[in-house]
Amino acid sequence: MAEATGLRNLQLVNDWADDVAVFRGVPWGKAMMWIFLLSDTFIFTCFLTSYMTVRMTTAEPWPNPSEVFALEAFGVPVPLLLIAIMTFILITSSGTMAMAVNMGYRRKRVPAALLMLVTAVFGAMFVGMQMFEWTKLIVDEGVRPWGNPMGAAQFGSAFFMITGFHGLHVSAGVVYLIIVAVRVWRGRYEEKGYDIIEITGLYWHFVDLVWVFIFAFFYLW
Amino acid sequence: MADTGQQHPISVYFWIWALLFVFSAASYMVDYLAFQGYTRWTLIIIFMMLKAGFIVAIFMHMRWERVALITAILVPPGALLVLVGLMAMESDYTWLTRVVHFGADPAPVPLPPPSH
Amino acid sequence: MAVEAQIPYQEAMELHDPHSWITKYWFSQDHKVIAIQYGITAIGVGLVALVLSAMMRLQLGFPDQFDFIDPEAYYQFITMHGMIMVIYLLTALLLGGFGNLLVPLMCGARDMVFPYVNMISYHVYFLSVIILLASYFVPGGPTGAGWTLYPPQAILTGTPGVDWGILLMLGSLAVFIVAFTMGGLNYVTTILQARTRGMTLMRMPLSVWGIFMATVLGLLAFPALFVSAIMMILDKTIGTSFFMPAVVSIGDSLDYSGGSPLLFQHLFWFFGHPEVYIVALPAFGIVSDLISTHARKNIFGYRMMVWAIVAIGVLSFIVWAHHMYVSGMHPWFGFFFATTTLIIAVPTAIKVYNWTLTLWRANIHLTVPMLFAIAFVITFVMGGITGLFLGNVIVDVPLSDTYFVVAHFHMVMGVSPILVIFGAIYHWYPKMTGKMLNDTLGHIHFWVTFLGTYIIYYPMHYLGFVGVPRRYFANGEMAIIDESVIMLNQTITIAALIVGVFQIVFIWNLIYSYFKGRDAGPNPWKATSLEWQTPETPPRHGNWAEKLPTVHRWAYDYSVPGMKDDFIPQTEPRTAEETAAGRTE
């Protein structure tokens, strides 16, 4: 296009006005993953907005998450102990994932695959602890999706639904990680390049990202 | 195309990793020290946004992406802010109507007989 | 990675050529085959919905004459008709069908970026249709909650299909959304990342723009429906109370408490309003191309058209609660949403002006696609104008839940997109099969459909004004119902049945012309866009020859002054005269 106006000097405008591709140098899979994550963001936000709505509209008292999710450690109840540990585990897994991406681009495929497997193990630990948390809540505290002894019924409903949906994402991520890690290990991407690890990483970091919001809005509110 | 992807010194990741731990610990302390009211919310939101920002910017490499991708991903969620904001208003209103309708004690169910 | 480096990647894209009948016609990874699969499935399920509407009309025109229509069945007809038409026909056909067909061809790509995911998308969609139709074979039949599925009533005793139907409906919707997401990610990524050389976004045909924006809306709006479907399933099956307040049902206090039915309405319309544009925007885009091609004139205000599509897409996310003026929501919302609703009329009106101005003093060929395109513009104006009525709170309140609303949305998002779909099928059938559709049959089909539409929906506006409520099984002895209503309802029913039956002409035309139609040649309409420049007709798997085509101009070089032909394909390099004349696009 000949009419180069001032706007065309902006990289943003220039990229959108280009032929072939808008996201210059971004592989198809990565572009698709980003757009999928955008769509998934809308899903989680709709969940969280629904939770906000039922919580703000209920006329019954909302159970105090700080007390509900407390654990006994050395005889003292520590609020949100398990949740804190889970948060740290997920962050750690995000760190190992970032390293795996880095190793991939350095073409060190064995360390990359190992780091991905470590990430998957942390993910599995997270899901395991979530199962423990659910069990404790259901068996000890008597929280059910349809009601609980401490107050508004929506506490249980929103909790099980949101953490459940997040847990499903983590579980799916673990499977995804293992599949990709095995393929990386076997050298399947030697020719195609290691974008796939970054794509997997995007998904995994997103799962961590969602947890940041769940942690703030569900446990700390 | 394989060797031109996102390559950054590993130290960056360790730094962010450490920072995420710090922010998580800090937001945990907000609860532990039982801050309430606006202080609590300001702190929680700040730490949340910091964590989210670092994850997206560094771990997901958005900081190094071109502006076209950054805007394409970060602008659409603006629609969600409208949804969240309006639903917050709506919830306040629903809560108000419930309190007005059910009276000071919001518990009684079944509903009182209609007055008209 | 330089842009140039991406083209060979795309040219050398791995295509999984079919090895057997089953990989060629059933598990095909060719976007054109998938498009036809989507098309046939959508039209098939659409015919079911058409029959359902005929049943409703029978009851409305001739109350109590037919034993097989009781109130329960009637509500099931309404619900299934609405849901099928909006989601499983229009969304699937416009995006799954035309999106799949046109995006790679018009962008100059070999296929979608991930053909395998694209294939799965269709089969998951097919599964969702099966789940939906399965609700006819379960105890209690399909749900009768109305297509909006509002709780609490949707999951309470008294609504037909409350045991199984509603669950199958919600499950089917969730599955549909999964299918749509897989397809939609493909369309968006293909448009953004896999165009051919020279194909900038501002050279894309408007069809692609419409499909692109609609797909983006779908990816961002369907999540709200997905979430509400999941929550309603939980409310129904394990007794959570997301949407359910404390309810007394048939004398019993139910176990629900504290949920918010308004939440569902907000989530539903946060999806539902973009959904209107998911259906409308591809139609806008396609009709722009039809008008330009058959009027032999460039589209008026191309850039304005593009920006109007984008503006409509953006605004569609902040107008949703104009569907809820009478719901008892926050009293301030009416003002906000009425304002945004009237603002969204501006870009929409711009599009209508531009279509009209494209036709102004053009070399109009009254081909069948063109007839449908003009019919669309007229019908869309009718439906759009009544939209302005309903967008205003004060006018909406008395008209709410009357036949005026029914007339409005059928005109604007029922008939209008359907007219475009017909036009588009007449337009692109030659490229897909190599045969022209029969003209005489096309004219018969057009005139009956077009005139019939007006006999059906025009009187409904009047019915609304005199206060006939929608979704009533029978009006009975209601004093407000005027004498004239009975006669009008009979007229509408007869017209609807005739229009319905005449769609057989169309189906017959599709089948007949496939075998006996006139040979079309590669470019029967003398059109400029890329899909008409393929080396073979119908295009083979992979669409193009060894090299992808290179694009040198926009898609609307019709009747360019001083040129030999009245059209210049997009692949034609610019001449020295053109450059000298300062024609840069």
CA(first)-CA(last) distance of chain A = 53 Å
Q: What name does the CATH topology of chain A carry? A: Four Helix Bundle (Hemerythrin (Met), subunit A)
What is the total number of structural domains of chain A? 1
Number of strands of chain A: 2
The assigned structural class of chain C equals mainly alpha
Helix content of chain A: 55-70%
Give unreliable regions of chain A as ranges.
Answer: none
Basic shape of chain A? globular
State the order of secondary-structure elements of chain C, H for helix, E for strand.
HHHHHHHEEHHHHHHHHH
Rounded to an integer in angstroms, the radius of gyration calculated over CA atoms of chain A is 22 Å
Key terms:
heterotrimer; B: mainly alpha; 2 domains; C: 585 residues; mainly alpha; two-stranded antiparallel sheet; 16 helices; 1% strand; globular; disordered N terminus
Task: Give a short synopsis of this structure.
The complex is a heterotrimer of chains A (221), B (116) and C (585). Chain A is an all-alpha fold and 221 residues long.
Topology readout:
The complex is a heterotrimer of chains A (221), B (116) and C (585).
Chain A: H1 11-16, H2 28-57, H3 65-68, E1 71-73, E2 76-78, H4 81-105, H5 109-140, H6 154-185, H7 195-219
Antiparallel strand pairs in A: 1-2
Helix pairs in contact in A: 2-6, 2-7, 4-5, 4-7, 5-6, 6-7
Chain B: H1 10-32, H2 37-59, H3 67-74, H4 78-102
Helix pairs in contact in B: 1-2
Chain C: H1 3-11, H2 21-25, H3 31-61, H4 71-107, H5 115-134, H6 165-193, H7 206-237, E1 248-249, E2 252-253, H8 261-294, H9 302-315, H10 333-359, H11 368-391, H12 393-399, H13 403-433, H14 439-465, H15 483-516, H16 576-580
Helix pairs in contact in C: 3-4, 3-5, 3-15, 4-6, 4-7, 4-8, 4-13, 5-6, 6-7, 7-8, 7-9, 8-10, 8-11, 8-13, 9-10, 10-11, 11-13, 11-14, 13-14, 14-15
